[in-house]
Amino acid sequence: MKPGNDRLHSWDVTPTEARKIQEALRDKVIRQDQFGEITTVAGVDVGFQDQGTTTRAAIAVLAYPGLQLLEQVVACQPTRFPYVPGLLSFREIPAILAAFEQLDTRPDLVLCDGQGLAHPRRFGIACHLGVLADLPTIGVAKSRLTGSFTNIGDTRGSQAPLMDGKEQIGVVLRTRTRVKPIFISIGHRICLNTAIHYVMACAPCYRLPETTRWADRIASRRYAKP
Question: Does residue 224 lie in a domain region?
């Protein structure tokens, strides 16, 4: 599977240049639903090996709504960008795009382990990947990068708006009763309410969606391919 717009910019950039790229591309994010029937969902996760010098990107493609694993791929590349808060995509996406090229199945929806719109420049990794791959994407983060929220209920499905001033940039969503919530924001070609629906559908039992759980296992080498 070839990504859609992966040549929009160079990856050989400084952190200052990377921020300018985010600001230049954020207007390309589509905040409405633009997709057909969802029959496959994918999780993307990235790990590092060789003391951080190698980036290991994993993609797990699952059937929807059954969530059975259909395909998995891994791509490893040299790590070329330093760890800089807010610039995760420049460190991880080159290896992710290499993994996408190995897929036989083009997923209908991608859940990213990271932020989407809930980002200081409104262009987290889910937005960046969505624009480059021309795919509907959702940011599913374990922790907050920016914004504020009020307390939410303890039960599964409880949620609170994630706000930056007067702008809603995502939701804080509890996917399991009395378990820490996760932070959901749109990536590309999807609206927030639809994103919440698919995250809940992909997380029937655990805090994290099955897409994320599979991709994390593969990226961390905790699952061996039969």
Answer: no
The answer to whether residues 79 and 52 touch, using CB atoms and an 8 Å cutoff, is yes
The single-letter DSSP state of residue 86 is: T
Under 8 Å between Cβ of 26 and 115:
no
Per residue in 10-52, pLDDT (tens digit) is 999 999 999 999 999 999 999 999 999 999 999 999 988 898 8
Angle at 54 between CA 51 and CA 60, to 5 degrees: 120
**What predicted TM-score, i.e. pTM, was given to this entire model?**
0.93
Range(s) of the domain holding residue 33: 15-219
| Residue 36 counted as domain residue | yes
H runs (alpha helix) in 49-149 = 88-100, 125-133
SS3 97: helix
8 assigned to some structural domain: no
Q: What DSSP character marks residue 130? A: H
Distance CA 124, CA 184 (A): 12
Burial group, residue 27, by CB count within 10 angstroms (0-12, 13-18, 19+):
exposed
